Every structure is written in C-alpha cells, then in structure tokens.
C-alpha cells in the first residue's frame, strides 16, 4: 500500500453514530489503517447504552466487535476531547448547532450534513476532486470568534452531486472549462436514510422528485468545480466557477434501487471543437485524484472506471467495485444537443457519503491539518 | 359519447394475436364500440388452435369471452379477407413480409411494429399529434405495384417516442417551433415484451441502455413533429422538421417498473423570450387532439393531464388514468441550460402501443379511408 | 343485479377517512348502489379542512368528486348523528375509545380495527363466511349500559385471516370439521398501511415476521369458524370451534408485493378418509356465500375462484378479479403430512379490509339491523 | 486456519463454466487455498474462445484475472485429463451424458446437476450434513463397467433442499428421528439461472409454483437424512430414512429476492415430549459439521447461525454471512400443529450450489479419495 502516514493511530469520534450514515462510518473506520474509533455520539435517548443496544443495525456486515459494547455518549464536545477527528453523520435538524459547538471546542469536524455546505468559509470537498479547497481552513479559523487553532469544519457534498462532479472535474482538467451540463438522476432509496422512503412509494414506481436535491446539484457543483479567489485585502472566497460561468440543470428521480445512484449527463465544453467521445473516455480513465496520489488509504486507484460494454454501469453490478470509493462511467457518446453524453454511477453510501468524509480527513492528515 | 361513426360494426383482424401487444389489442377491441374481432393471426405453431389454448395469457384482465374459443389462423391475407382493418402486433423479424403481403392484398394495416416507420410513404402517426399525416396514404397506394385501392400501412411510434412527442406537439402548437430537446427515459419492463427482461437484470437495478431506443426517439420525433412537403412534381415527402431544424438527444434507461415510461424532458424554443412555466402548463393542459375533437372513441379527453403536486406523475399512480390513453405531465419549471423542463409519463402498453394503433384506425374511419 | 334492498339511499360516515383504509372505504362507497357518504371523520389536525386537502391521497383511482370538497369532522358522534352506518378505518390506538363512544351514541359501527375482535359480545365477521354471527348483536345491545336500541359494533377480520378462513369455511361446509391447519403467509406491503414498511426493509428481501399477525390468524380463525353456544340461562357465547377442536399454526412473512396476500395452506380433516383433491376443488368452486345469495351488492359471485393452471393464483394477476371481493385458490393437491394442501390469494385491501366491512353492513341492512 | 491438507495444489476443471453456476465455481475456486483452475469446459459455441469473451459475466465481482484469457474447451474428458477434480455446473439436459463420460474416463466429478441425484450408487451430499455417504463411492466404482479406480460422481442437493436439511440434520443428531416436516419456501430468482425468470413474472408478485421443486425437497431430504443399509450379500443402499419413516411436505414459491432462499419449517419429533424451543435453539447453534471439524477450508464455522432478533433471518441482510456457506435460523418457537417451527435462510448460490460441491471435494481430499 502506498501512503505517507507515519503509522501512528489517530483517535476519532462519530456523531450520529446510531443512524444510517453513522453505521457506515463505523464499518469503514473499524477496518481503517490508522483511524481508531474512540467515541460515539448520538441523541440523549441512546446515550449511556451499549452501541449494539442503541443502534438498530441495518447493514449487511455485522456490527464490528470493537464497538459492540462501546458506550454511546451525547453529542457534547467534552466527550470527544481526546479525538483528533470527529466525523458527523448527524441529521440536518441538529447538525448545525452540534457541529458549531464541536468546532468551537477546537475539534476537526468532517461532516456529511448539508448545514455548512453553503458557508463561505467552509470547504465543500469531494475528495477525488477539490481537496485544494482545504486551503480555506486557516481563514475559517481566523474569522472565528475567538480565532481557532485546531477546530474547523469540512463538509462533503450531497451524494448525487458527488457522482457527477467527479467526471466533470476530470473533463475540465483535460479539456478546459465546461459551459453547461444537464443531469438526470435515478437515485437509490438508501439516499433517503432509514426508515426513509415508504415501500408503497417506490415498488413498481419512479418518484420524479426529491425535495431540494436539484438545487443542491446545481449549486454545489459550482462551488466544488470552482476555484478560490483572493481579493485585494487578502480575503479568500469560493468563486463558484464564475471565471467561466457554468450552467447546471438537474432532474432528480427516485427509483427502486437499494444502493448506487445512476445519472445521465450531457455536457458542453467551452472549447471548440469539443473533444471526441474517445478522447473523453481516455481522459476519464486517466484521471487520478490527489488523494490517491498522496497516499490516502481510502482513495480508490480508479477514480473513474470507464466501461466498454454498452449496458454498463449498473448499480447492482458496479456499486461495490473498489468498495464503492470510485465512480463508474459508461456509454460515452456524442450528444445531439450539447457535445458529449454519458452515464455515471456512484455508490451513494460510500463515495457519496461516509467514504468521502474519511478521505477528506485522510487528506487533512497528509496536509498536517490534524494533530493526532 | 361524442363521435361521428354511424354505428355500423367493422370487422377487424389482429396479427401476432398471441403475443404481448396482440393480447392488448384483443382486450381493447373486445370492448370497442364498433370494431369487432373477426380473425386472429399468429405463427403456424398456434394456427388451428383455440385462442385460449394458443396464447400464454399474461394480462390482469381475463381473456375476453368472445375470443376464448376463436380459432387462430396463420398470418395469411386470405384468412383476413373479410376484415376492413388489420392490427399488427407482430415482432419485427416477421412484420415486414407479412404486412407487405397484407397491404398488397388490399388490406388496411395499422402496425405497432417498427419495420415501416422509416418508409418514406408510410405515415408514422401518434394519434394525438399528427393524424394529418394520413394524407400520405394516396401516394403510398399509387406508388405501389400494382396501385392499391384500399390497402395501406400506417404505423404508430415507439412507446418512448410517443410519450415525449405528445407534449412537444402541444408546445409547438402553442409557442412555435422547438430548437432542441433533451430526454432521459426511465422505461418499464413491459416495453421489452414477454419474456423480455430477465428479472436478474432489473431487480434492485437500473440498466442504462436499450438497444436502438435512443435512435428511435431522436429520429421518429422529427418525422412525427415535422410536416409534409410537396415538391414541384407533386410528390409528397415527410420533411423531418427541416423547416426549423430540431435537435433531439435521448438517454434511455430501463427501471423496475411494470408499466409506464417516465421521462425527463428539457426543451429550448426558437421563440425568444421563451414561454414561462405557467404558460407552458396552460398550453399543455389546453391541448386537444383532433382525434378527440372528431370523435374517435378511444381518444382521451385530456391529451395531456398536468399535475400540480410536486411529486407527480408517477407510473404506478397515473398510468391507468383514462385507460392509459393520454399522458401525464408534471414539474414544469425553468431549465438553467435550455428553457423549460418537465416530467412526462405515458402508459407504454396503452397509448405507447395498441391504443395508438386503434385510435389511428378510428381516425381513418372518420376520414373515410376504411370501407366496412 | 340481484338483491333485495328497496333502493332507498342510506347515509354513512367514515372514521379515519384520511388514512389508507379510509381511502379505500371512500373509493368503494363512492360507487355504492345505496350507501351514500354523508360524513367524514379524522383527527383534529384534519378537521375543518376539505377532504382533498386533508388527505394524502395514495390511490390509483382519483379522489371521488363527491368527497373532494367535503369538510372533514372530528371523530365525535354528534357529527355523524344522521348516519345510519359508520365505517371505521381507525388505527388501533384510537379505535377503542372512539368506536365505544359511537356505539354508545346508538350508531351502527362496522370496524376494520382489531380492538373489539376478541370482545365476547362483538361479532368478528368475514362476510363470505359467518354472517350468522350477527345474531350476537341483540345480546351486545342488551348488555350495554344503558341498553342500546340501534348502536352496535361489528368487526371484520385481519386481512391474512380473511384469506384463509374463506376456503376453510368452504371445506368444513362440504366435508365436516377440520382438525388442524398449517399456514404460511406471504403478505403484501399495503397490509402495513402508509408509510408502513420502509423500502429498505423489503426491496430484494423477505421479512419473516409481522408483529402479532400469527396470533391473530390462530385465534380469529377459531372465532370465525366456530359457532355460537347458548348456555342454560340463555347467554350466548362464541364457542371457538370447541365442539371439534381445531389447531391452527401460522408463519407470517412480508414480501415485496403491493397488494394481495398469498398463503400456502395444509389441512387435516376429521373425516377419514379425507376428501380427494378433486372433491376439494369442486367444493371450493361450489361454495356460495349467504351474502351473495341474499343479494348484498358487494358480495362476489365466485366466493372462491379455483385456478387450474399450475402456477396460479398470483397476486399481481389475480388480485383485481371481482374487484378483489373473492379469493383465488390454486394448486389443490395432497399433502404428505396433513391431508390436502393448496394456495390461496386474497386482496388484502379489498376483501381483506374495507370490502368486508361494507358487505357486513349490506348484510345487516338485509337483516333489518340498520334503520336508514 | 485449521485444516489437514498438505498444501499441494490440486488442478481442477469446471464444466458449464460460462453459465451461472459455472461463474460461481470460478469465483470461489479463484480464491481457493489449494484448488487451482486448470481447465474450463462449455458448449462448442464457446469452445476456442477466451473465457472473458465466451461468458456473459453477470456477477458482482469481476472475472478473476487468472481465467480472463484462459481458452474454453469443449466438455470432453481428454481436455481435462490433468484435472484431479471436475466441478459440473452443467444444465440438466446435457449433464447426464457428459458426467457419465467424465466418470468413465476416471475423473472425479462433483456435480450440481440433478441428473444423478436419484442414482442408487451416487451419493447426494450436503457437505454440512452427510459426508458419510461418500462411503458409497467404492461400490459406485466397482459396479461400473469396467470397474473404476479413480472416477466417480458425487452430487449435491437442490438449493431449497439444502437449506432445510441442515437444520433438520442438527435436530436429528440432538433429539433423534423426526416424524414429519412441513416446509414452505420463498425462493430467490437466482435459483432459476439466467435469463431464468422473466421480470414481468416476479416484480410486485409471488409465483406459487416451481416445477419439480417440491418433489425434490420431499425426496432428496429422505436420501440425505437417511443412512446406508448393507444387505446380506454386502450390497449397500441408501435407506431413505426408512428405519424411521419421515413424511416431508413442501410448498414452493418464487419471490422477488435476488439471492437467498427463505423457508418456514415445522417439524414433529418421534420423541415425546419433544424438545423445547430453547433446547432446539441450543442444538442448532451447537451443531458442527464434520467438514469443518476435519478442516475443509470452505466449510463455515457456524453451520447454523441462530438469530435472537424476532425478524431474522432476512435474505438481504444475512445471505453473505460466512460467504453464504452456512445457514441462518430464527424464530424458533412452538407449533400448534406439529412440535416446533422456525425460519431458515440459505444462500442458494453459495451453500445451495457451488459452495456445496467444493466442500464435498475438499472432504473427498481429506478422505483420500482424490489423487492430486
């Protein structure tokens, strides 16, 4: 295994540990080469109980033995003071206050919640794309009242945004800026958490609407693919891809799939003539993330796996490839309206959620932002 | 009931009567006000048997009593000589030869097969859209060797094309020509016939590919929405929307739905500024087909039903509205890349298949093209 | 149509009108020949609103026009004083108190809730089986404090019980008492109401457990198939099949089916030798309910439809036969452990719920227990 | 890892290598500690092609690299002469002739096909249950014309039989013979192979019939749980449990599950009083297979995993436990008709198919029946 970590173990905590995303964090961290689960936070209803009693475990893999009997704490910073990293799988209705308090207590928070994604000082990072946005952290710390030394918040993107920005980033790196992008998603039910979508709504059905989802894709894509501008007085800001305006239009649908969001994507490049389908295939396949290059152990070798078969990717067959840490692309071909169209499939509960937070934290370790 | 038919019964035949589409024809014709099933054609394997023995009936409704004991014939014109109309639910691998023979025998053939859709003298008619294309029939007859008096072929469109051209036609009628259209389909398994799609391919899955489907949508849409040009020497031809070039791009997917194709659609109008979402909603809702206006009994009152709820249409809830003879539209809103986007859902086995053929024949009756 | 009702309309109310069962009551009553919806009851949250606004309508058929703008009331007897019949689709947590109050207010309550099923004075009636148990109503009224003249409660059975007791009743009528019965159910998700079962629990899955369901089948079957005993002092009691003890064992499972409970059933007869499979088929097919014979308009002509095909009944193909008011049986064959085994399928939201309550009320009308 | 194998690699072949079961054999053998894939056999249509070209790969895991470019042979013994073991995933229509030829060529054949299961000299072995039946092999060899030295055929059981005989064997070992057993199965679609079940037949549906399946369970259970009788002249025969007659009755159903057969089981013991549910739970949990005890590397540590949660086992959550090599039992409780009832779930494509063949071969290695 490549990687530059020195081998020391780093204590981490999980907020929202009994929920769907929290369970995923626990499964991934239980096998992590250097992150070690040290504290688990959940609601006051779960606090004080053994984890196996507190959680309604709904994963295919059993509860890792090292957390079965761990006592769940309330989500208060004092219970996590020994943690160098805190992962948050909290629901949006409580994530804002709790993550704010954890940051103020000088904890490094890597959150899957949406609350801070639009914060002008919080990086919104898809770890295979824009780890460079970690450079916003010093400003986030210095603008805090009082200024922070170690505490900060990093968020990852919405699961359906993550799927599409990875190939888009590969295309922009190879061929320059995109001008427009049309996306239709066919999203898995696990994206709605548990209990989430009633079975009566989705069996033998498509629901052509997911509240707030289209807005997330259309906005988050700009923040992630954009750069960081520095104004005269030295203040940094996310430029929302404004140097080359990018129009994104999304149509979001829920389908009867357990895991794996499938998305049809069409793009128009600024560059004329646009690249050919074959050039696009090669660029996607060649794309390598900094996270992988710099040795983040959870980063996949194939950031984008490009299928040649005409009927792939398919969520059931492709979602577990590389433990769901990369994305799968197929059907790269010309589009009669824009330039190029393709299909992308990403595991919404892996790279679309907990895996992203973990790679983000690994990258922060590499960059020296985490003190073990 | 409105309508101008004089009440006389018209004898009809069904080709491919034991197949999936044939079964649908039989269910619809069994309750038809004036079409009466007179002959059933199938392969030589089925010929000579009672229909209930020959068909593997896979419909929710029972076999209509009037056809249970009807003897199935081979698909030869002599067995259908008393039929004024022949509906074809034949598979593409045999439809070409058989339909050719039936036309040559002076039979009026209304086909759901794809074989003649691209024929320059055969109308490709979605009956809620372009019944005017029946005007090509005299030329089809006169160019035949020998010229025909009564025989002709009319085809209806592919199911996924049908769903989208209906609202597109409504938009063009209200706001003038479209410039481009992007479509992503989520198509039901019944579109693949029986046995069709293996269950292992679609349960907990999306298949982002349907062979030939995207090409059908992109090509058929132009023939259907286009007009008929008359050249100097009087020859007519389908103009493929060439007066106002229209670019159509489709991405086709199979999802775990039994009936009802759901499609996300984005369009750009030639007219600037484009209509607002509210204007589009009103135009769609107001759109009435000539088939309905002229009294075709199978034409739906609401050609396009526009939903106001944010999460409709849904195939399971909306596919049986009006016996599946119209389409349902919802989520009409602005598109950041083109002008307007919306969702359309159509019952692929009703208006997407047999119902279209039947309304086409009803319209031909109204126009005096059928001699009972 | 057969039937003895005099044609006068009878005003009815629906309790729990906005819920899943309530919506079914409304669909059925909207097309009823003499019951007319006069009042709708729901929680205080819905009270005062138009029905179309109060209900989250989840049915394939649209909201009937006559109730769209009807104002929903709270479930208090004074709002239903003009109703001759009240149908209850209330949840069990509130049904007890509300139905008690309605009965005390001299209203005839036909309930789908489980609360009074085990009450020694309340008939538990599957209308195709044991309408004779209505004879318990006078005792129910006379034992009430104060005695009642018109008010009473009749319940129908649990959906999975209903499916199996109908063929069991047919067998006992033809061949005398049963000794034992083993049942395994494969139940539809609609049996759990809405939102009911989370989609993550049932897609690509079987859940081999439904809380309380096996006990209901094992107990309710005895009450329904048993008779009414009269003790020396004239007191009547349900005899729980005690003259011929019947052992029932059920295993209940949830499967990914929207509507229609499928159950495998094996039975042992007291009579030796037991009837042959062919005799059983004939007896099932010949079984006619008193409800049908006496003209209840919602009672199906075929109480038990017996399939000859080896692979039927199937919920998707057979649940809508006769509007789901009868049951379908197939695969009648010998059992190596007990005597005879077969498969039964019943529509859990029709005869398994609202349809049963309505036929029960129709039968009570026939018997003069309802004063319009 | 426990185990007595000496570490030498053993060359194996796979017949029917391109089919569903063949693909499973390949995935398992690619990671096997001592079996090494040496030859692949398929139909003449595939012969001569690279495996990755010949197979329509439908597994979640990618094609193992060591077989991607391996050339597929026809299923003729001369191509497999270097193999010490041949695994057969052939379809029943060809398995008989091919396996006969391979045995005659002195090859050891471990077959998943049904053809020889009822052969009086061929062991039908569920490897966690009756490996002792390998003792029939010498007689199989000596009765062959000409007598064989190394060649033989061993079959494993039908997938739905396998699931139930494992707990039944545990019960008989602990509590003595069973008298009767009632089984209802809810079987996964993968049991029907590929393309197998049409999606239109199973989505939103249950099919209460699988051709020949009930007979297999009822017959195979007796052969597997029975012993081997030796007659006066020394001839051995399978006694079909005849010393303690056992009546088995099965009802088989197909449900919308991808992998994992769930079965409800009720049993009656000869012994009175019967064991309590708690005794049964303990006996099931304690049951250890000889295959595991003697070090077969693919044998699971937990032959029967007993769940305490009321709603387990579930196929989606439990089928991958121990790579699907054991079975999961839950809901052990009293039965009102027989003695004890429970639910068992087994992975039909693992222990229900290829995994069984492989453990059988491992056991034959341990017993010295295979010469590497």
TrEMBL record, chains A, B, C, D:
Under the heading Gene3D superfamilies, the entry gives: Dihydrodipicolinate Reductase, domain 2, NAD(P)-binding Rossmann-like Domain
> Which positions fall inside the Semialdehyde dehydrogenase NAD-binding domain?
11-137
One of the Pfam families matching this protein, by short name: Semialdhyde_dh
GO MF term set: aspartate-semialdehyde dehydrogenase activity; NAD binding; NADP binding; protein dimerization activity
Cited InterPro entries? ASADH-related, Asp-semialdehyde_DH_CS, Asp_semi-ald_DH_pep-lack, NAD(P)-bd_dom_sf, Semialdehyde_DH_NAD-bd, Semialdhyde_DH_dimer_dom
Please give the pathway this protein is involved in. Answer: Amino-acid biosynthesis; L-methionine biosynthesis via de novo pathway; L-homoserine from L-aspartate: step 2/3; Amino-acid biosynthesis; L-threonine biosynthesis; L-threonine from L-aspartate: step 2/5
Q: Which domain of life is it from?
A: Eukaryota
User: Sorted alphabetically, which CDD domains does this protein's record hold?
Assistant: ASADH_C_arch_fung_like, ScASADH_like_N
Which catalysed reactions does the entry list for this protein? L-aspartate 4-semialdehyde + phosphate + NADP(+) = 4-phospho-L-aspartate + NADPH + H(+)
* SMART domains given in the database record: Semialdhyde_dh
- The EC category is oxidoreductase
List the keywords (alphabetical).
Answer: Amino-acid biosynthesis, Methionine biosynthesis, NADP, Oxidoreductase, Threonine biosynthesis
Tell me the active site: 159, 261
Q: Which GO terms describe its biological process?
A: methionine biosynthetic process; threonine biosynthetic process
Stated EC number for the protein is 1.2.1.11
Q: Does the record carry NADP as a key word?
A: yes
State the function annotated in the UniProt record. Answer: Catalyzes the NADPH-dependent formation of L-aspartate 4-semialdehyde (L-ASA) by the reductive dephosphorylation of 4-phospho-L-aspartate. Mediates the second step in the biosynthesis of amino acids that derive from aspartate (the aspartate family of amino acids), including methioinine and threonine, the latter of which is a precursor to isoleucine.
PANTHER family for the chain: ASPARTATE-SEMIALDEHYDE DEHYDROGENASE
Q: Which family does it belong to?
A: Belongs to the aspartate-semialdehyde dehydrogenase family.
Put simply, this protein is called Aspartate-semialdehyde dehydrogenase
């Amino acid at each position: 295994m490549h990687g530059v970590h020195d081998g020391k173990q780093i204590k981490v905590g999980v907020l929202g540990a009994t929920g769907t995303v929290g369970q995923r964090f626990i499964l991934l961290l239980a096998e992590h080469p250097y992150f070690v689960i040290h504290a688990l936070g959940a609601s006051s209803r779960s606090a004080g109980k053994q984890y196996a009693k507190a959680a309604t475990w709904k994963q295919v893999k059993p509860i890792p033995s090292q957390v079965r009997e761990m006592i769940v704490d309330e989500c208060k910073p004092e219970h996590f003071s020994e943690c160098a990293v805190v992962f948050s799988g909290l629901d949006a209705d409580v994530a804002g206050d709790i993550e704010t308090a954890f940051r103020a207590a000088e904890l490094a928070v890597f959150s899957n919640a949406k609350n801070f994604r639009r914060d002008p000082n919080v990086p919104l990072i898809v770890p295979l794309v824009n780890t460079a946005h970690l450079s916003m952290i010093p400003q986030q710390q210095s603008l805090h009242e009082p200024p922070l030394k170690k505490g900060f918040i990093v968020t990852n993107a919405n699961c359906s945004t993550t799927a599409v920005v990875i190939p888009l980033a590969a295309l922009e790196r190879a061929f320059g800026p995109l001008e427009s992008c049309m996306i239709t998603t066919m999203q898995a039910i696990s994206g709605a958490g548990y209990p989430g979508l009633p079975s009566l709504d989705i069996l033998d059905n498509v629901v052509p609407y997911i509240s707030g989802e289209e807005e997330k894709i259309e906005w988050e894509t700009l923040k992630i693919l954009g750069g960081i501008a520095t104004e005269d007085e030295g203040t940094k800001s996310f430029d929302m891809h404004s140097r080359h305006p990018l129009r994104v239009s999304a149509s979001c649908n829920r389908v009867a799939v357990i895991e794996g969001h499938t998305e049809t994507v069409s793009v128009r490049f600024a560059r004329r003539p646009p690249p050919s389908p074959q050039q696009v295939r090669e660029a996607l396949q060649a794309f390598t993330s900094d996270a992988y290059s710099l040795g983040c152990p959870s980063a996949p070798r194939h950031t984008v796996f490009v299928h040649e078969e005409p009927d792939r990717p398919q969520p059931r067959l492709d979602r577990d490839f590389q433990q769901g840490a990369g994305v799968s692309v197929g059907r790269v071909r010309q589009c009669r309206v824009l330039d190029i169209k393709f299909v992308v499939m990403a595991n919404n509960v892996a790279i679309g959620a907990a895996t992203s937070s973990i790679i983000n934290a690994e990258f922060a370790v590499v960059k020296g932002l985490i003190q073990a």
